[in-house]
Structures are given as structure tokens and as C-alpha cells.
């Protein structure tokens, strides 16, 4: 089931991942995503800005890095089914890799709080999709209980192989760019920031902290559990992928921010949407609103003086904009309706 022409991340980083020749590689061509310099957006923020386009993964989010590992290990363990709770992207990714491996997949999502594109992906790939009248945190509690009492593998980020796969994004950044001053990323459950920190530590073998970037964990005001240092009982934000009140990886995420001499920052929904639009307008990069939280967080950290002018910053754009076309249509330029004549177009386009 390997793909000879495609550098899937398990093959690219086999020596740094917990796989053996007995592990069947369930791959769809994930990893090796573009790292794009963003001079116009960077000038606006006063930094040397780079964007890591994780939306270029097979199902459109970084979740594929972890899922190729989790599903490959599930297949190695002869699992017949996998289950996850999800704010959307985990379910799309689990459904895809489970389909590729021929495994049954059950996803549990908070009803009405999932971007349309993510739901459509899980549906078309044949997952059993259960929408509950509750939050992501409720969904996670239920699937954990089910995985304890039934022969089904949990592929949420509690699954240790997910973080192992996700750490490879840090390897790619160091290989292409060296060590930036900062890496900013949106934080929900705190799995990805934990994985990045592990990845940077493994990539940079020499001892002192200046060999590694500082990590900026960016949250939405309405679900800023890490910033507040306590659970948020009713999380609410436009950034649905990080609408999480009880971060599963709270302890590890806090350690990543502390040890890297970085930190956490919270931004409003208005700031998230403003930068979501600026990223697209200034750089031609379309990410989902949750991903734009990283750029909004950098803007905040610049205003506070935490990030200094001219520093090199990588923002991790975690998911593709097409996941959530509704948000883009609502914010973008209006569509101009005209009669089918050259004159009408001429007036608008050149007038
Ligand atoms: C899952 C997800 C996140 C949050 O990652 P955590 O590991 O939960 O902190 C951020 N952005 C997008 C698009 C996601 O799908």
C-alpha cells in the first residue's frame, strides 16, 4: 500500500518514527507541505514572515500527519474499526485513512458546529457520522468510554502515534529554513504545539534553548483555556477547529510554551476574521479561520513587544480555506450581477 512516487512522511522520516518493516504504511501523500515567504503580510506585521501551508495535506489539514501514523499502527495491530471525537478535521482525516486501509470508522461531532467541507469529507468517505447535542469535550468523553469497553481504536490525539506523525512538520521547517525565532500556531487541545516542540527538540540535537524557536500558542478569546489557566465550560468562537474548553494536552502544551520561552496569547473573533482576510488578500493564501488565529496572535505579540521587529516568524496555517467556504463568502468581495454584454463588464472592470 506504499506509493512509490510519493514521499509520504512515514517513508521520509522512518528513522525518527515508531514504525518497523512490519508496519503497513497507510499513506495518501501527506507531509512535505509548502513553506511560503509572505513579504507583504510580513511588512504589515514588521517581521520576516513565512507560512507553513498545512492545508496542502491530502484531506486539507495537518491532522493527516498524525493520522497516517495512527491508522498505520491500528492496521499493524489488526484493528477492525477506529473511532474519534472531532471538531471536524480529525473526522475528515480519520475517515480518509480508514477508508484507504479498509477499516470501519466512527466519528462523533458537536452538532451544528462543524464547517460544511469537513462534514462532507467524512460523509463521502463512508464514516459513520454521529452528531451529538453537546460540545467537542462531551464527544471526547463518550468516545474515550467506548474505546475502553469495545474493540475499537481511539484515533484522537490521546493516541500517542498522532503526535509522532505531527512532529514531522518541525523537521521540515528546520530542513528548509533553519531555526526561526518564532513559530506561531493555533491551539485547541494542545496536541500540535506539543508535537512541534518534540519535533524541534529532535531536529536540533545541540544543547541550548537558542537552537530552538520560541513557540507562540494562539487561542480564541472564547476558548482560551491555556491563556486563562482553567477550563472554559462553554467555549464559543468562529474558529470552530479550536472551540475546545478542556485541552487534552494541557500539561504538555504548557511545558512546550514554557521551555521554548514562548507563551500563549488570546485574540478576538474580529481579529481572527480580519487576519483571515488579510492573509488571502495580501498573499493569495486561503486558510480556514482557525488557522488565521496564528497570524492574529503574531499581530498581538508584536503590539505587546513580545515579538520584536524583523524577527523571523513561521505561522502554521493548519487547515485549508475550502473547508469552510461560508466564512469566505460572507467576508469577501461582493459578486456583481450584470447583463451579458461587453459594455456592462467594461464599465465595471475599467470604469
Ligand atoms: C485540530 C486543529 C487545530 C488545533 O490543534 P490542537 O492539536 O487541537 O491544538 C488548529 N487548527 C486546525 C485547522 C485544526 O484542525
Quick rundown:
The protein has helices at 9-12, 39-45, 63-76, 89-101, 116-124, 136-149, 160-166, 168-177, 191-203, 225-228, 250-259, 269-283, 289-303, 325-331, 342-350, and strands spanning 35-37, 48-53, 81-85, 104-110, 128-132, 153-154, 182-186, 214-220, 263-267, 312-317. With 351 residues, the chain is of the alpha/beta class. It has two domains: 32-58 and 162-331, Rossmann fold (3-Layer(aba) Sandwich); 61-160, Rossmann fold (3-Layer(aba) Sandwich).
Topology (SSEs and partners):
Blueprint: H1 9-12, E1 35-37, H2 39-45, E2 48-53, H3 63-76, E3 81-85, H4 89-101, E4 104-110, H5 116-124, E5 128-132, H6 136-149, E6 153-154, H7 160-166, H8 168-177, E7 182-186, H9 191-203, E8 214-220, H10 225-228, H11 250-259, E9 263-267, H12 269-283, H13 289-303, E10 312-317, H14 325-331, H15 342-350
Parallel strand pairs: 2-10, 3-4, 3-6, 4-5, 7-8, 7-10, 8-9
Antiparallel strand pairs: 1-2
Bound molecules: pyridoxal-5'-phosphate.
Amino acid at each position: 500500500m506504499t506509493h512509490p512516487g510519493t514521499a509520504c512522511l512515514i517513508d521520509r522520516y522512518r528513522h525518527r518514527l515508531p514504525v518497523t518493516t512490519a508496519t503497513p504504511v497507510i499513506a495518501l501523500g501527506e507531509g512535505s507541505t509548502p513553506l511560503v515567504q509572505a513579504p507583504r503580510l510580513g511588512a504589515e506585521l514588521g517581521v520576516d514572515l513565512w507560512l507553513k501551508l498545512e492545508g496542502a495535506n491530502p484531506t486539507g489539514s495537518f491532522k493527516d500527519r498524525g493520522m497516517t501514523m495512527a491508522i498505520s499502527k491500528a492496521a499493524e495491530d489488526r484493528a477492525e474499526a477506529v473511532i474519534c471525537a472531532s471538531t471536524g478535521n480529525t473526522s475528515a482525516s480519520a475517515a480518509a485513512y480508514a477508508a484507504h486501509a479498509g477499516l470501519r470508522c466512527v466519528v462523533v461531532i458537536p452538532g451544528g458546529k462543524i464547517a460544511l467541507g469537513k462534514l462532507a469529507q467524512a460523509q463521502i468517505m463512508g464514516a459513520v457520522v454521529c452528531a451529538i447535542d453537546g460540545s467537542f469535550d462531551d464527544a471526547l468523553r463518550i468516545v474515550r468510554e467506548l474505546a475502553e469497553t469495545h474493540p475499537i481504536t481511539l484515533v484522537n490525539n490521546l493516541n500517542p502515534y498522532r503526535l509522532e506523525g505531527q512532529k514531522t512538520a518541525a523537521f521540515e521547517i528546520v530542513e528548509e529554513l533553519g531555526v526561526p525565532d518564532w513559530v506561531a500556531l493555533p491551539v485547541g487541545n494542545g496536541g500540535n504545539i506539543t508535537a512541534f516542540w518534540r519535533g524541534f527538540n529532535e531536529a536540533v540535537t545541540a544543547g541550548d534553548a537558542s537552537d530552538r524557536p520560541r513557540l507562540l500558542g494562539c487561542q480564541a478569546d472564547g476558548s482560551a483555556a491555556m491563556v486563562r489557566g482553567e477550563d472554559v465550560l462553554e467555549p464559543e468562537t468562529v474558529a470552530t477547529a479550536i472551540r475546545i474548553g478542556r485541552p487534552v494536552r494541557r500539561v504538555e502544551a504548557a511545558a512546550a510554551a514554557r521551555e521554548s520561552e514562548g507563551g500563549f496569547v488570546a485574540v478576538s473573533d474580529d481579529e481572527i476574521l480580519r487576519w483571515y482576510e488579510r492573509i488571502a488578500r495580501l498573499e493569495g493564501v486561503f486558510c480556514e479561520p482557525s488557522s488565521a488565529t496564528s497570524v492574529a496572535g503574531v499581530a498581538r505579540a508584536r503590539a505587546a513587544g513580545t515579538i520584536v521587529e524583523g524577527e523571523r516568524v513561521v505561522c502554521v496555517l493548519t487547515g485549508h480555506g475550502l473547508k469552510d467556504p461560508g466564512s469566505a463568502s460572507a467576508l469577501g468581495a461582493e459578486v456583481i450581477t450584470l447583463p451579458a454584454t461587453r459594455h456592462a463588464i467594461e464599465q465595471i472592470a475599467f470604469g
